[in-house]
TrEMBL record:
This is ABC transporter substrate-binding protein. InterPro entries: SBP_5 (IPR039424), SBP_5_dom (IPR000914). PROSITE patterns: PROKAR_LIPOPROTEIN. Keywords: Signal, Transport. Residues 278-609 form the Solute-binding protein family domain.
């Protein structure tokens, strides 16, 4: 032990350190370093940002478990929970983070979704366009190559791409948590629809049951989607923990959109996923008269109109893609005058940039025909551009000026990106009725929509959709159990499964999720800019343990985001563990000697059990 009863003079301390004759304990060494006027190297420090438990059933516990592994490995790791809106701003808009834990957006499940997620050209772009700041020229080449080919050649390219990503780790997949929901078993054939998509709600078969009483917006219900004998509308009621749709319905907003389900019901896209492939929706049909470079002619439905009664034309489609490419429309305001803040550079919309970026030009050939020209992409990839929401030019053209708050110009941001868009004017099968911020949202069927009454198109089997906000997963389940709601729209945590199973009349819905939880790295930051360091961090994560403990077995470990798709390489399948970055331990417990050796091989060293910077 260090003898604290005897003072250590500065000269004696320096002599002892210089001579190296005295063997000191760790505590004495730290004290002498302080006396000598120099400090030990700084411990590697990481902050993990994520959502609180009332906003996401798993993110906070995932982050805490990962942070504990990091601390065991000698890192200074802390978890910072914050609201969904603030997390999006910090990670997707400002890049002001070390690491984050959240789910990837659903569009990443399309292999071309990896292009905007990881291509270096988006390293400084806002939104889900490469929030990691990741740059790898070989990855760029592979991302570009998979856009130009199809069939087996594309599969081989994506195989190489996913293997390289698994080694370089721009993010670490923590696992796919199953989507767990509670539903009124008598209300609908829940197993027949995907409740993660707008199309799933439109195809939901509503049961023909007697009218019910109680609950907010509780009204009579019928299976044919028509009003009952009592004149009350058929209503589908959703319980949700995500209140953001009650305050903002801007489809371009990054920080307010967990997914596009509700805006997908308010706005039409040219095509929608159905039966495993993209099919025309607002478009009657499309064809590609040229494939190299790809050129498409899109023919719109003649009966399409906006919710305010204005006809939807090819000009609206062309306007939409011009707006997504530059929300200032070339730096002009509605009267045609040039602005000083927007004219110097385009202001693209952060959402949908990967898809709209496939398009080079869009031209309205006549009122119902649009020509799309694409650059360097195969038609099988080019059609992804048809999945963005089409916006009414007569509404959004007035939102292309620079955004201001309190009369202050906030820089290269336009009104189109900051408006809450309430009330929204879309062309979708549902239209806006009213909202109560942080409490409820009411939509109703738009009888002018082309899908209403067309069984082959799958129009809504209900008159009204109501979203009711609950404060927690348990509250969501209780709303369904009490008859106030028909289903939990947002998935709930696995801890609610016993509660759902015990309640009469409730049906437990469990589906494989299309989106993984990830640990995202800000590779612009020290240490995290080192792929060897990130690869070693990935070895501190036991995906099997996370599935068993955090997801309570309702989930699956995986190496990459394309798991469970036909594009996923066999070499990345999870057998006895992660085949690329195996866990440096066993059954959730780290082997500290293996961990230390791995970090030493990565160029780091330890000081009194603390991981510190690399060797000099």
């Amino acid at each position: 032990m260090c003898d604290r009863s005897r003072p250590v003079g500065r000269r004696a301390a320096l002599a002892g350190i210089a001579g190296g004759a005295t063997v000191l304990s760790g505590g004495c060494l730290q004290r002498l370093r302080s006396v000598a006027g120099w400090r030990s190297p700084e411990q590697v420090r990481l902050r993990i940002e994520t959502l609180p438990a009332d906003a996401d059933p798993y993110a906070l516990e995932l982050a805490r478990t990962v942070a504990e592994w990091f601390r065991t490995a000698g890192l200074d790791a802390q978890v910072l929970p914050m609201s969904e809106q603030e997390l999006s701003r910090q990670t997707l808009l400002r890049g002001a983070f070390d690491l984050f834990v959240t789910r990837l957006p659903a569009w990443v499940r399309d292999p071309d979704g990896l292009y905007p997620l990881l291509h270096s050209q988006y390293a400084d772009a806002p939104g889900w366009q490469n929030p990691f700041g990741y740059a790898d020229l070989e990855v760029d080449d592979l991302l570009e190559a998979q856009r130009r080919v199809a069939g087996g050649r594309r599969y081989d390219t994506l195989d190489q791409l996913q293997r390289r990503l698994a080694r370089s780790q721009p993010f670490t997949v923590l696992g796919f948590a199953d989507d767990v929901r509670a539903a009124d078993r008598h209300r609908a054939d829940w197993g027949a629809a995907d409740l993660d998509t707008a199309q799933g709600y439109l195809s939901l078969p509503i049961a023909d049951v007697a009218p019910s009483v109680g609950g907010a917006e509780g009204v009579g219900r019928r299976g044919d989607g028509r009003r009952g004998d009592d004149g009350e509308p058929t209503t589908l009621r959703l319980a949700s923990t995500d209140h953001r749709a009650t305050t903002n319905l801007n489809p371009l907003s990054v920080e307010f959109r967990r997914n596009g389900v509700l805006t997908g019901l308010l706005y039409d896209s040219l095509g929608r996923e159905a039966d495993g492939r993209l099919q025309p929706w607002l478009a009657e049909r499309w064809e590609f008269p040229r494939t190299d470079p790809a050129v498409a002619e899109v023919h719109l439905r003649e009966d399409a109109e906006w919710h305010d009664g204005v006809a939807l034309t090819a000009e609206d489609v062309a306007f939409t893609y011009d707006l997504l490419a530059d929300t200032s429309l070339g730096g002009t305001v509605p009267d045609g005058t040039e602005t000083t803040t927007q004219a110097s550079a385009p202001v693209p919309a952060p959402r949908f940039r990967g898809r709209s970026g496939l398009v080079e030009t869009v031209t309205a050939l006549d009122s119902a025909t649009v020509e799309f020209r694409f650059g360097g992409v195969h038609p099988t990839v080019a059609v992804r551009a048809f999945t963005v929401p089409v916006l009414p030019a007569h509404v959004w053209r007035e939102r292309t000026g620079p955004a201001t708050f309190g009369g202050i110009d906030v820089g290269p941001v336009t009104d189109a990106l900051v408006t809450n868009n309430i009330p929204p004017v879309g062309s979708g099968p549902l239209r806006f009725v009213r909202n109560t911020p942080r409490e409820s949202l009411v939509l109703e069927r738009f009888d002018g929509h082309f899908s209403v009454g067309a069984l082959d198109l799958g129009g809504p089997a209900f008159d009204r959709l109501v979203v009711l906000i609950a404060g927690s997963d348990v509250s969501c389940v209780e709303r369904v159990a009490s008859g106030d709601a028909d289903v939990t729209a947002t998935p709930v945590g696995a801890e609610t499964v016993p509660r759902i199973g015990r309640r009469a009349g409730l049906e437990l819905l469990v589906e494989r999720s299309a989106t993984p939880y990830v640990l995202g790295y800000n590779v612009r930051r020290p240490h995290l800019n080192n792929p060897r360091f990130r690869n070693t961090l990935a070895g501190l994560v036991d995906g099997t343990h996370l599935v068993e403990t955090v997801f309570d077995g309702y989930g699956h470990p995986a190496v990459g985001p394309l798991w469970d798709t036909r594009w996923y390489p066999a070499a990345l399948e999870w057998d006895d563990g992660n085949p690329v970055t195996p866990f440096l331990g066993r059954r959730g417990d780290l082997d500290e000697e293996r961990v230390r050796e791995a970090f030493r091989e990565a160029g780091y060293r330890y000081d009194d059990g603390r991981l510190v910077g690399g060797r000099t």
